[in-house]
Design brief:
Blueprint: H1 6-9, H2 22-33, E1 40-44, H3 51-63, H4 77-84, E2 89-93, H5 100-109, E3 120-125, H6 132-143, E4 149-155, H7 163-166, E5 170-173, H8 179-193, H9 199-209, H10 213-224, H11 233-240, H12 245-256, H13 260-272, H14 277-296, H15 303-310, H16 316-333, H17 339-354, H18 361-369, H19 373-381, H20 396-407, H21 411-419, H22 434-440, E6 444-448, E7 452-457, H23 460-467, H24 470-481, E8 486-491, H25 492-507, H26 531-539
Parallel strand pairs: 1-4, 1-5, 2-3, 3-4, 7-8
Antiparallel strand pairs: 6-7
Helix pairs in contact: 2-3, 5-6, 8-9, 9-10, 12-14, 13-17, 14-16, 16-17
């Protein structure tokens, strides 16, 4: 006989088998006993908490001719027919059947009487995946349903369900299963499977499942498949592709110590051992929460755990800053195709934050070299400068350098820079420049001249990291290319705006003038008479076709 996964083998067959949903089960049982059956139900809750299982149990019980305390007897004529052929219990996966046509097909069939049962029951799983048109088509049926039809809608994302649908259903919220009930369920399965799994391992499985009974049983199934009966905690963590608690704590300690080399090696080990970097971020967030609580509330955790957390010397301000960075990293990783590079850059950024290496270096430099602002404004008013939107951190140096790199851009210089860009890889393990190299590999040079380089990053926060290390990056590039470049960086949205403005200026015959650097302002009014050639050098022949 083919092997049956444990979560299927031990799926609840009656209301008494359901774990952790006592209130919901009690209400549904009483509605069957008292014959107060609604035409539409909405089951909402996290995955693996029993929504679909309860829907199937309810479907069988409501059709039973001789239900016992709300449960199907399993012996009456209808129970036997439904077990042989549940043609009147229709399951629909809205994730793959989410269009208007599928719902219209349901509407055309609901008028037909059940084949064998008292009620024809539609269980629509992941109902939040339905399109707007499909919801509208379903609404009409929910408003005026035939008396022999019951709809059970299941979702993990209640906020995506239109209010017009919600108001026509009886809503039941399924909670995460508590640890005690989950542990008892796993213990029962081990006994039935005649497997000896230690209580410590079962408790770890419960903890990692985060209230999802199906997830817990699936993990238990994998543990039972291991060749050794003496399962270790490390094996459980490896199965899940996540870090043990000790390793998460160790990594946070590395961050707090600003040990860049050890951190990069640790990240390399994460990747090589198949750890999910998204999970590492989530685990760090949980640990930071625990550290914050342990520093604020005495005896909240067990003594040994609390001592571990308190060994990490982080202020609440540090914890808040790291939490914000990790949340931003989590969002960026969901959109990134190179999660490792992104993770490494944010790791360096976090280490700097903890050790008070703030992103104010660039702005301090600006303050030192700024002089009479009125004089500078007069100079700027007499000169054409590209219009760059840099938000609240708009500054003159950035504006001037972007203007100058556009005014002096050369396509051959750009090709030279890009052809040698891979040499930066050689500095990934360099103690002095490893963080700079990692940063630059996440961006690219979009405009170059003999004196200027303009870098572009998809992530706006990386631009700020770049700006905080201008002098160090310039020194690094000098070693790579043998040229002292003046540099600046923008994010991809800024670059799109700059490029568009440049092309419009070309169309209107508006030229760019070389502007003096802030430290040596002179009145230089040299018109760029070769503007069209510069345009080609930067953007190629695409500008020729602009109308």
């Amino acid at each position: 006989m083919a092997y049956i996964a444990l979560y299927r083998k031990y799926r609840p067959q009656n209301f008494d088998d359901v774990v952790g949903q006592n209130v919901t089960v009690e209400i549904l049982k009483n509605s069957i006993i008292n014959n107060k059956i609604s035409h539409a139900y909405l089951f909402n809750g996290p995955r693996g908490t029993g929504k679909t299982s309860v829907a199937k149990i309810f479907a069988r019980s409501v059709n039973c001719l001789n239900n016992k305390n709300g449960d199907a007897c399993g012996k009456c004529e209808l129970c036997k027919k439904i077990k042989e052929n549940d043609v009147d219990i229709i399951e629909i996966d809205a994730a793959s059947n989410n269009g208007v046509e599928e719902i219209r097909e349901i509407r055309s069939k609901v008028k037909l009487l059940p084949t064998v049962a008292k009620y024809k029951i539609y269980i629509i799983d992941e109902v939040h995946m339905l399109s707007t048109g499909a919801f509208n088509a379903l609404l009409k049926t929910l408003e005026e349903p035939p008396s022999h039809v019951i709809f059970i809608l299941a979702t993990t994302e209640i906020h995506k369900i239109p209010l017009t649908i919600l108001s026509r259903c009886q809503r039941f919220d399924f909670n995460k299963v508590n640890s005690e009930e989950m542990f008892a369920k796993l213990k029962q399965i081990c006994k039935l499977e005649k497997k000896n799994i230690s209580d410590d391992i079962l408790k770890l499985i419960v903890k990692l499942s985060d209230g999802g009974c199906r997830d817990a049983i699936n993990l238990l199934d994998q543990v039972m498949s291991l060749s050794s009966d003496d399962v270790t905690e490390d094996e459980i963590y490896n199965i899940q592709g996540i870090l043990s608690e000790d390793k998460v704590i160790n990594f946070l300690e590395i961050i707090s110590q600003n040990d860049i080399i050890s951190g990069m090696r640790t990240i390399d080990n994460f990747v090589n051992s198949g750890k999910n970097l998204n999970s590492v971020v989530e685990q760090l967030l949980v640990l930071l929460r625990n550290v914050a609580i342990a520093k604020s509330v005495d005896n909240f955790f067990q003594k040994d755990s609390q001592l571990k957390y308190l060994s990490i010397d982080l202020s609440l301000d540090n914890i808040k800053a790291l939490t914000n960075i990790l949340i931003e990293l989590e969002n960026q990783m969901n959109k990134s195709i190179n999660q490792r590079n992104l993770f490494e850059i944010y790791y360096i950024y976090m280490s700097n934050i903890v050790n008070d290496c703030k992103s104010a270096v660039f702005y301090d430099t600006l303050n030192q070299i700024k002089f009479n602002e009125g004089k500078m404004k007069n100079e700027l008013n007499n000169t054409t400068i590209c219009d760059v939107n840099t938000g609240d951190n708009f500054d003159l140096l950035k504006k001037i350098r972007i203007n100058n790199v556009l005014a002096t851009a050369n396509k051959e210089e750009l090709l030279k820079i890009n052809n040698d860009y891979e040499r930066i890889n050689d500095f990934i393990a360099n103690k002095v420049y490893n963080n700079i190299a990692t940063l630059l590999l996440s961006g690219k040079v979009v405009v170059a001249s003999s004196n200027y380089l303009l870098f572009c990053f998809d992530d706006k926060s990386l631009v700020q990291v770049f700006l905080s290390n201008l002098e160090k990056i310039e020194k690094f590039l000098g070693e790579i290319y043998g040229t002292e470049y003046k540099i600046m960086s923008v994010d991809s949205n800024e670059w799109a705006s700059i490029k568009n403005k440049f092309i419009i200026n070309k169309k209107n015959n508006v030229g760019y003038e070389i502007m003096p650097e802030l430290e040596n302002v002179q009145n230089q009014n040299k018109k760029n008479t070769k503007f069209e050639n510069i345009t080609k050098n930067i953007f190629g022949d695409e500008v020729e076709n602009i109308n």
